[in-house]
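Your task:
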Amino acid sequence: MPISRSRQQSQDALLVRHLQAFFGALEPEAMELLRHSLAWVEISGGDTLLTQGEPGDAMYLVVSGRLRAFVHAEGSGPQRVGDIVRGQVVGEMSLYTGEPRAATVVAVRDAVLARLDRPAFQRLLACSPQLSIAFTTQIIHQLQTSRQGRKPVADKLVTIGLLPITTGIALPDFAARLAAQLSPLGRVGVVSRHDIDQQLEQLGLGPSDNTDKETQRRIAILLDQIEAEHDFVLLLADATPTPWTQRCCRHCDELLLLADATQPPALHPSERQFLSNRPPLTVIADILVLLHPADQRSPRGTAPWLARRPVAGHLHIRPDLSRDMARLARIQSRTAVGLVLAGGGARGLAHLGVLRALHERGIEVDWVGGTSIGAVMATYAASDQPLDTVMANARRAFATNPTGDFNLFPVLSLIKGLRLKRILRTAVEELVGFDADIEDLWKNFFCVATNFSSASEQRLQQGNLAHALLASTSIPGALPPVAHGGDLLCDGGSFNNFPVDVMRSMRGVGRVIGVDLNIRTPVRVDHEDMPSSWALLRDRLRPLAQRRYRLPSLPSYLMTVTILYSMSRQASAQQQCDLYFNPPLNRVGMLQWRRLENIVQRGYAHALQVLDAPPDIRSP
């Protein structure tokens, strides 16, 4: 529906800023021509803007609010494509092609849009070559972004709701800390019911809990004005289910549920009243933020909190630690740093050296993930334990060869896997203090396994941590598969040994650091026929320098074959990294666990070399 004049005036300056950001520097005449070609549109939360299959006759620029796109596939329900937020456009391809809408677009919350229909678009192209070039440039840019596999900045947040769901939350103090961390990234506004009531009083109106139309209309205009003047807005809900709390829950782009982790995980009255029975297609993402004391060693008991509420994610935060609040700010501003660690047997110990270099250079990591040994090393990063503690834990864990318990009669695998299982469980318990779940790590974590039962890649983000690590590291043929929810899981390297693409899809991740272990070099042999088993056995008994056959051992051969497909995807994964490491480990075998110190040092030296290189020549 058309927008009211008072609301239009509050959004006009923001519209100009969006147009300048989207099209770049336009001549004043071209900008004025474009503005007069746009029509203001207002849409309420839950309403449909575009319907899949209908004729495409216009594009829309989101001035404020949030939209969500869905694709309806035959035989299945609607599949979410993504969100369209302030400063972004939807439906622009229809102006060029005239084809039917490819998706259904629904308003997640009240939104103000600027509409450009096809006749107006064609007039702009005819009278302004500069606008014609600007439109074409944007289309090309979006197509290139899609092909490169990088997420467009379509997930950025403007208005963030803060809802306390336990007693004792010092909400103004928490909001001030978060605002301080967000402020280097843009202008931050903090809005409470008290702030709105003061402005309503100046307008001669009653408080915000009045339900009359004029008061509610004025509140909407005030929030529009605040949003137009800031890059981030923090809406502070009341501690009880008030009308203001309800507005905070439905007006934000994302809702942070703040809870004291030491209290019982029961549902709060505001959760029951305002977060249940929302339209499923337009549910605002709820994020559980569990608050802990600064001296807590590790979070505990996260699973019961998550079991009671269908949240889109969770975070563990120690509010008294500025680095934790900075991590929250980066995730909420979609500038978080994700660290991806590849698999590669004992070579993966080099990840510890890279972690040390990143720590020394003050490079904070917010998300971590990996495959196989990379998943194990990622656990160290996600535990957020001191570096000395991590190294001591690794030395104890790998003092014994984790793959040395061979089966006398290999029916399912060459290696029993009992030693690796024991090492992983012991290492986790010593690192964090108990047999933790993935959800109990300080930093968000995932690992990749291969689902043998369904022949597919499987991402593990919840459940017992040691069990998930065992699944991700169980090389087919070398180690037995792991039973998981009725399926058999094995090493994730078969499908995705360097899961940069997975990290790119994680909530809040804007930059990715990747540590690859792909050192694949051609294996040359100087004999035409393969030697017999006895010949190989006799050859292995000779000193290394006197061996005739340069062939890998059976476990090493199986481990390498497992990741061959993933290695073929290396170039694509490397291109998706903002900072790329590939330590030189050519003479390091995949089973040489006793070389821990040397391998760690190689990773450290390589990381320093990359970090010291000028930004314009860093890989990739």
Observations:
- The CA atoms of residues 34 and 102 lie 26 Å apart.
